Amino acid sequence: MESKATVALDRSVQLKAFDETKTGVKGLVEAGISEIPAIFRAPPATIKTPTPPSSSQFTIPTIDLQGGSTDSTSRRSLVEKIGDAAERWGFFQVINHGIPLDVLERMKEGVREFHELDPEVRKGFYSRDPSNKLVYSSNFDLYSSPAANWRDTLGCYTAPDPPRPEDLPAACGEVMIEYSKEVMKVGKMLFELLSEALGLNTNHLKDMDCTNSLLLLGHYYPPCPQPDLTLGLTKHSDNSFLTVLLQDNVGGLQVLHDQYWVDVPPVPGALVINVGDLLQLITNGKFISVEHRVLANGAGPRISVACFFSSYLMANPRVYGPIKELLSEENPPIYRDTTITEYSKFYRSKGFDGTSGLLYLKI
């Protein structure tokens, strides 16, 4: 029987070999594999899917944003719905958000086109250096997570300093910049509504710099020959204030709600919004950053574009803690203060290990 040290060494050799191909999971599929490598095999317990009872209690809220900025009655109703979704689910979908359908379609198509470029072309973009303007890689936590995920990612910061179009891949660079400008508008509107839902001034969250930074990640989940043995994305919560996700029609995204994995079904033209750890931190646990995952699938590829409102990979000395106006004797702070830089360093070092990073900040 192999010793633990031998198994660990063997795994590290396999991880390095996979990383050095610089073509990601898509490269494995292109090579025609019929079995997934051992480094992708997830512990069976993490793949289990207890199906929730079918009832409206287990349906992700869908919120119509139309009319929320003009009519005060509609605005109040909208604030209430968004506050309720952020408190009870931490996840909701929005429709009539203002981003043109053709921009959504071109964004998804651009991500697909990049990940389906010739392997030799993709290799030129591959990097594990988070300080690069643009990063194409597979699994940011490849060397620290218990099992690798079946997906590849292309990403860059589009705010506060958008990259130059010539620094981005021709396949999707132009639309990445166009789409992120649209997401910034939606994000600002959502932060206003969330501020009001907390009983604060409309601009409170924006004034805390929640909308200053935007990280765009274009994910590609190739078809998997053994989808029941791995995950597209392991259970985790997001290191952001808010995440705006555009997903295609393949499905597979699930949210942990009342101990059940609940599907987040693709809704044509909708965006999926979820509360991140930093928003849970500053609202002192009122809005919840919930765990979610993506199942691997045999049909694929699944395309999604996640935009994170967070200065996750950039130096940021600003200190964040529970908002003072929300605290009282009955509601004392439950988290200690931190900087995004400190929290991000911890988050990246632990990887997607199935635990919430906020436990690290609990008082």
UniProtKB/TrEMBL annotation:
Key words of the record: Iron, Metal-binding, Oxidoreductase
Query: Which SUPFAM superfamilies does UniProt cross-reference here?
Result: Clavaminate synthase-like
Name this polypeptide is given:
Fe2OG dioxygenase domain-containing protein
Q: Which family does it belong to?
A: Belongs to the iron/ascorbate-dependent oxidoreductase family.
Q: What phylogenetic lineage does the species belong to?
A: Eukaryota, Viridiplantae, Streptophyta, Embryophyta, Tracheophyta
Please give the residue ranges the record annotates as the region Disordered: 50-74
Q: Which organism is it from?
A: Brassica campestris (Field mustard)
Q: Which PROSITE patterns match?
A: FE2OG_OXY
One Pfam family, short name: DIOX_N
Q: Which residues form the Fe2OG dioxygenase domain?
A: 210-311
Q: A single Gene Ontology molecular function, please? A: dioxygenase activity
> Which cofactors does this protein require?
Fe cation
